[in-house]
Design a protein that fits this description.
Blueprint (H helix, E strand, L loop, with lengths): L2 H27 L10 H4 L2 H6 L9 E3 L34 E3 L3 E2 L6 E3 L25 E3 L4 E19 L12 E5 L9 E5 L23 E17 L8 E3 L1 E8 L2
Antiparallel strand pairs: 1-2, 3-11, 4-6, 5-10, 6-9, 6-11, 7-8, 7-9
Length: about 260
């Protein structure tokens, strides 16, 4: 065999080996989840797939229909002294409160009871009669020390806000204002606290972190965050002017629980 023939054969062997090596390398690089495999693109990046999943549609939020009474005093009160942790006046109208469409005052004309069965002035039913003015004959005056009232909504509701007026004819601060909701009429089990500004536990229901505030015609609006409950209970323990407890109106904004 000639030398030229041997060289030609060697070149042919080398070429074949190079082709085989390239083929093997290409096979190793192809994974079972390559683009040629049906559905591979859907499983290649699980994190990206999860991020793209959309949750259920959010309920449409609209302003809660709130009608305010006529203001009885104007300007920032200057005679509030000795009240700790007092919220600063907003200095402008309160912004609209948004809740799911169909939310309304479900406390109007609902049964109400209280710890003081014989109010000094007025009737306990005034608190849910729809009259929010501070004129004489529109408010109820309960006795001194810790008192509470309870509204029976008649059924369980998803409660989005509680709006209350103690007495806004004068600039006053009421103490130990506590708002609770529950499905238990005795408020023993499954009680949710929506607001508590009792900073020294003088009402015996625990120390609260909310601030004291000055009564105005806007009332105090408390975000209930859709808490489900049938009963609403409100506490107070006198005010900076005297030891008595007053209520003009309480509104509870909600929708029937599903």
């Amino acid at each position: 065999m000639s030398e030229n023939s041997d060289v030609s054969r060697m070149k042919m062997y080398v070429a074949v080996l190079m082709v085989l090596a390239m083929f093997v390398s290409s096979c190793r690089k192809r994974s079972p989840q390559s683009a040629d495999r049906p559905g591979a693109a859907d499983t290649e990046s699980p994190v990206a797939t999860v991020d793209k999943v959309e949750g259920p549609a959010q309920a449409q939020l609209v302003p809660v229909p709130i009608e305010l009474p006529r203001p009885m005093f104007v300007g920032t009160p200057q005679n509030i002294r000795g009240v700790s942790r007092l919220a600063k006046p907003l200095g402008k109208a309160r912004p609209p409160f948004l809740a799911p469409a169909g939310t309304q005052n479900v406390a109007l004309s609902k049964p109400i009871s209280g710890s003081d069965e014989e109010p000094i002035i007025g009737e306990i039913e005034y608190i849910t009669d729809g009259d929010k003015s501070a004129a004489d004959g529109s408010y109820v005056e309960l006795g001194p020390f810790v008192q509470h009232i309870t509204i029976d909504l008649g059924a369980e509701y998803d409660i989005y806000a509680v709006l209350l007026w103690h007495y806004h004819k004068q600039a006053r601060v009421y103490f130990d204002v506590i708002v609770q909701v529950a499905n238990d009429p005795d408020f023993i089990s499954d009680v949710s606290v929506l607001f508590n500004n009792d900073d020294d536990n003088s009402a015996g229901l625990g120390v609260g972190q909310d601030l004291h505030y000055v009564e105005t015609n806007e009332g105090k609006l408390i975000d209930a965050k859709g808490t489900g409950a049938r009963y609403v209970r409100l506490y107070s323990n006198g005010n900076n002017a005297n030891d008595l407890n007053h209520y003009i109106e309480v509104e509870v904004f909600g929708k029937p629980a599903k």
